[in-house]
């Protein structure tokens, strides 16, 4: 009798362990499937190897052009030699550690969220965005009209719909798009810390419909701070960064480091409507002006 009882426990444990790993594998597969996009020009998902090879070549060109740049490029050079590109693993996802997929600059403060009041270097830019929220919202409502929908791009998501409208896409100004929102483009172009001259810089309107899940994923680099200005928000839409949850507020900026694992879930009903924000990539405040200039040259937009 004891033998049968013990055997039953062993069988139960085996079934439990197998079921756990099957569930875990399915979860990881789902994350992997939708943590990258199909855009053939995407630096993070498709072009990362080409961008890295090109960056090394342009670094050597920079060294030849300027002989006094050692201080400005020392940690950039060390970071370019890192040989762990696109090393996303299930272990890293579970550990909630930063894992930029293209360029990981050494010795940067790895903070998930940034409070505007705690960093005066970013405060001025945030003030400009928040004080002009009505102007930016007006531009958004214009580009979101039915006659402009062909200019929007749709990103892959496991559920729901996520649309984006670029003003700057990977360092390239979208000339036709900015004609529809000139005031917003003029505002962001004057920000002190806006990243707009390299492949990691974007300015983009982002719309997430109710019922949408954006799977956990990593950004391409740790040199930027993602700033989201809330235009239309609701409590049911949640941003998760390294297991920490935040909600957008209308007219307020939410800043985070997208080198950490992050994702979005919109749990609201159709009546709640979509979450709409303006995304502006800002320079990490610990990067010097000399380093900014070097990175802009090394990671200049492709085809320049």
From TrEMBL:
- What GO MF annotations does this protein's record show? dioxygenase activity
Write out the transmembrane intervals. 6-22
Domain of life, per UniProt, equals Eukaryota
A GO term from the CC aspect? membrane
Keywords (alphabetical) are:
Dioxygenase, Membrane, Oxidoreductase, Transmembrane, Transmembrane helix
One short Pfam name that applies is: Asp_Arg_Hydrox
Quote the InterPro entries the UniProt record gives. Answer: Asp/Arg/Pro-Hydrxlase (IPR007803), Asp/Asn_beta-hydroxylase (IPR051821), IPNS-like_sf (IPR027443)
Give the Aspartyl/asparaginy/proline hydroxylase domain ranges. Answer: 130-285
Name the PANTHER family for this protein.
ASPARTATE BETA-HYDROXYLASE DOMAIN CONTAINING 2, ASPARTATE BETA-HYDROXYLASE DOMAIN-CONTAINING PROTEIN 2
Family label: Belongs to the aspartyl/asparaginyl beta-hydroxylase family.
Please state what the protein is called.
Aspartyl/asparaginy/proline hydroxylase domain-containing protein
Q: Identify the species of origin.
A: Magallana gigas (Pacific oyster)
């Amino acid at each position: 009798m004891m033998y049968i009882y013990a055997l039953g426990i062993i069988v139960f444990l085996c079934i439990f362990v197998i079921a756990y790993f099957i569930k875990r594998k399915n979860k990881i597969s789902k994350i992997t499937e939708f943590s990258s996009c199909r855009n053939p020009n995407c630096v993070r998902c498709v072009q990362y190897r080409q961008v890295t090879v090109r960056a090394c070549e342009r670094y050597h060109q920079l060294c030849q052009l300027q002989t006094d740049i050692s201080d400005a490029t020392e940690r950039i050079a060390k970071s370019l030699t890192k040989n762990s590109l696109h090393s996303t693993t299930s272990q890293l996802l579970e550990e909630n550690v930063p894992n930029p997929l293209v360029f990981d600059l050494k010795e940067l403060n790895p903070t998930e969220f940034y409070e505007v009041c705690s960093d005066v270097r970013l405060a001025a830019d945030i003030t400009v965005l928040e004080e002009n929220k009505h102007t930016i919202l007006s531009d958004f409502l214009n580009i979101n009209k039915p006659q402009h929908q062909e200019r929007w791009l749709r990103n892959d998501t496991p559920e729901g719909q996520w649309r984006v409208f670029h003003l700057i896409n990977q360092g390239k100004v979208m000339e036709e798009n900015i004609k529809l929102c000139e005031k917003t483009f003029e505002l962001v172009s004057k920000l002190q810390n806006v990243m707009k001259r390299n492949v990691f810089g974007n300015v983009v309107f982002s719309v997430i419909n109710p019922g949408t899940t954006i799977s956990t994923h990593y950004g391409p680099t740790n040199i930027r701070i993602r700033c989201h200005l809330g235009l239309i928000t609701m409590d049911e839409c949640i941003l998760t960064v390294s297991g920490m949850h935040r909600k957008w507020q209308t007219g307020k900026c939410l800043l985070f480091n997208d080198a950490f694992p992050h994702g979005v879930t919109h749990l609201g009903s159709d009546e709640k409507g979509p979450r709409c924000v303006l995304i502006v990539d800002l320079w990490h405040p610990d990067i010097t002006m000399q380093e900014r200039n070097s990175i802009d040259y090394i990671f200049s937009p492709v085809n320049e």
